Fold this sequence. Notes:
Layout: H1 4-18, H2 49-64, H3 73-89, E1 92-103, E2 107-114, E3 119-122, E4 126-127, E5 135-141, E6 143-148, E7 172-178, E8 182-183, E9 190-195, E10 210-211, H4 223-228, E11 231-238, H5 243-246, E12 267-270, H6 272-283, E13 287-295, E14 298-310, E15 319-325, H7 336-349, E16 355-361, H8 374-378, H9 380-385, E17 386-392, E18 398-405, E19 408-417, E20 420-424, H10 431-439, E21 450-455, E22 457-458, E23 461-462, H11 471-476, E24 481-484, H12 505-527
Parallel strand pairs: 6-7, 7-11, 11-12, 15-16, 15-17, 17-24, 20-21
Antiparallel strand pairs: 1-14, 2-3, 2-13, 4-12, 5-13, 8-10, 9-21, 14-16, 18-19, 20-24, 22-23
Helix pairs in contact: 2-7, 3-7, 7-12, 10-12
Bound molecules: 2-acetamido-2-deoxy-beta-D-glucopyranose (10 copies).
Amino acid sequence: MRAFAPILAASVLAFSSHVASFSIRALNITHAPNTTRIGTASGLPSLTQQQQQLLHDRLFQTNLRGPRWTGNDNHNALTDLVAESMEIAGLSVETLNYTLNRWDPRWWSLTLHLKNGTDLGLPTTGFWPYSGNSGLRGVVAPLHDAGTYGLFPSQSHDTSTLDFDNLPEGGAIVFFDNPSPTRNYSLPGYHLLGTSRDIPPSDIPELGNLTNPHWQSEKKLKFDELKKMGVKAVIASWTNTSDENAALQFLPNAGAPGNGNLFDVPALYVGNSTGELIREMIRTGEAHSATVVLDAPSYEAPTKTVVGHLPGRAEKAESILLYTHSDGPSIIEENGPLLLLTIAEYFAKNPLNISLDIVITTGHMSGYHLDEKLWMSERPEILRNARAAIICEHFGALEWKDSFRDKKPVYEPTGKWEPMWTMADDHNESGLLHQSYIEAFEGTSENLRMALLAPQTIDGKRSRWYGAGGSSVLGHSNLPTIGIIPQPDYLWAAMPDGGWSKLDVPMVIEQIDVVLRTILKLDEKYSAGQL
Ligand SMILES: *[C@@H]1O[C@H](CO)[C@@H](O)[C@H](O)[C@H]1NC(C)=O
Ligand SMILES: *[C@@H]1O[C@H](CO)[C@@H](O)[C@H](O)[C@H]1NC(C)=O
Ligand SMILES: *[C@@H]1O[C@H](CO)[C@@H](O)[C@H](O)[C@H]1NC(C)=O
Ligand SMILES: *[C@@H]1O[C@H](CO)[C@@H](O)[C@H](O)[C@H]1NC(C)=O
Ligand SMILES: *[C@@H]1O[C@H](CO)[C@@H](O)[C@H](O)[C@H]1NC(C)=O
Ligand SMILES: *[C@@H]1O[C@H](CO)[C@@H](O)[C@H](O)[C@H]1NC(C)=O
Ligand SMILES: *[C@@H]1O[C@H](CO)[C@@H](O)[C@H](O)[C@H]1NC(C)=O
Ligand SMILES: *[C@@H]1O[C@H](CO)[C@@H](O)[C@H](O)[C@H]1NC(C)=O
Ligand SMILES: *[C@@H]1O[C@H](CO)[C@@H](O)[C@H](O)[C@H]1NC(C)=O
Ligand SMILES: CC(=O)N[C@H]1CO[C@H](CO)[C@@H](O)[C@@H]1O
């Protein structure tokens, strides 16, 4: 806890400086950076100081409780907060209750047994989600180097690259290195519809190379086939990624098919230098075997999707749909519920003519065992009534990247804010939404770099729409949709400070203000009969 304190102090400082008329002696605001932003002086719609402080407190206290893994106590505490607070604000609120078979990784470790009798305890960067449960005793077997888990040029995984020839009789622990796919939003598969304040795309160089451990979510394994071959456990090594960036990435997020959740082949990740050591020990024949411990039981847990409705003054069902997910490992990954709660409270005080429907879904980290889209069939009227959809997640993300020094990756802040990637459909009917959203960035600070991207179908292949489960269903339907999804490297990483040091609360506020202004513009269009 001690290491936490300076981080907190710094962030409270930066936060309070945002609030122009707010000064408390105890806070040293004299030397704080100038973070005067939209709304505060300009008279544009913005959260009040009280709403900003409350948002800060909720983010901080949510983070204090630890990761919100689908269906754990912290996750349920967050969905309870959101449901009850929306009710207090005057929304009608309903929860869709589910039970989930929850996988709970508790302890993991790796030991290499050398032929000369020495045991080497090796550092890991974490576990492969849903891979298995070894119990504390672990799995012991000889090692086999299966080489590199390669990628097709399209960046999807190519399982045929793994070498399973001559697996040891009686079972093996398989090792391989596991390069990360990249994404490139400058390719023709993504049409750039606009940017914040019309900044040139060169101000967002990340468009051309999203190299990021997060994309590992695509690299699944056919664990059932591995098991049939006698594979008892797996060790995967990160390549071209620092250990710090790789640490505790919850990747890939895919449980076994069926009800079981588990593949029964416990798997761990190691950093690159540890991987090199294992490879060398196998090559020289010094390694006899390894013990993989991944103690990770599964049990039934309650979880819920929260649905809120704020009737508009026009007293019609027609609505703007605000959507997000509520579960995740860091205060950046699943701050969506607090964003939408704050927006709901703002409009409860500043009523719109159009209604708001708010859906905060569960199941995002469930390895597809709880379908995030269930609400769509359970409450079909929400989709029928919606005139536009806005998906909000991952606000306030500071950009961290591996920079390469002497060809070694060093994980550090770039000094920039993570681009505010926004997925959009490019139907003609969506023009109003795009225009309202882009206009809402007028007067925002230079740090806020937004790219509005429409996934395209090229050569029969549809580029992926990234976002909370079901975002793509909205995006590919006739409903005008934007999905705001900043994608920092650490998005799916559990972090000792929960990600607090990578969260910029004034940025969160500025991004919320953009959404408030977008909704207000849409409400004007609706009132004029144009939406
Ligand atoms: C306030 O912060 C500045 C810069 O960090 C520092 O030089 C100054 O001594 C601080 N003042 C107080 C009263 O802590
Ligand atoms: C802070 O920034 C705002 C907007 O850019 C500017 O108007 C104001 O003068 C600045 N204040 C200080 C103290 O630099
Ligand atoms: C869902 O759970 C909540 C408590 O979290 C309860 O109040 C509500 O009645 C439940 N809804 C249904 C339909 O069971
Ligand atoms: C066994 O091999 C390891 C790795 O080469 C070495 O560090 C260790 O000293 C050796 N132990 C013995 C007892 O020879
Ligand atoms: C991404 O695509 C653009 C456009 O084709 C290209 O110029 C750029 O080099 C690509 N980036 C990488 C890292 O390949
Ligand atoms: C390592 O990653 C960097 C960017 O993150 C990229 O420029 C470089 O080509 C990568 N190297 C290898 C060997 O993949
Ligand atoms: C370590 O990373 C380099 C690229 O940076 C890669 O070529 C190598 O295969 C990796 N080794 C392992 C064991 O992951
Ligand atoms: C597309 O939208 C514009 C206004 O946004 C309208 O003028 C135009 O007629 C529309 N085109 C089609 C084909 O619907
Ligand atoms: C909301 O509707 C009322 C009554 O029709 C109208 O006077 C008002 O201008 C509308 N609000 C907006 C933002 O257009
Ligand atoms: C080719 C390219 O676009 N390179 C860019 C990759 O992203 C970094 C920032 O993260 C830029 O500095 C490079 O120019």
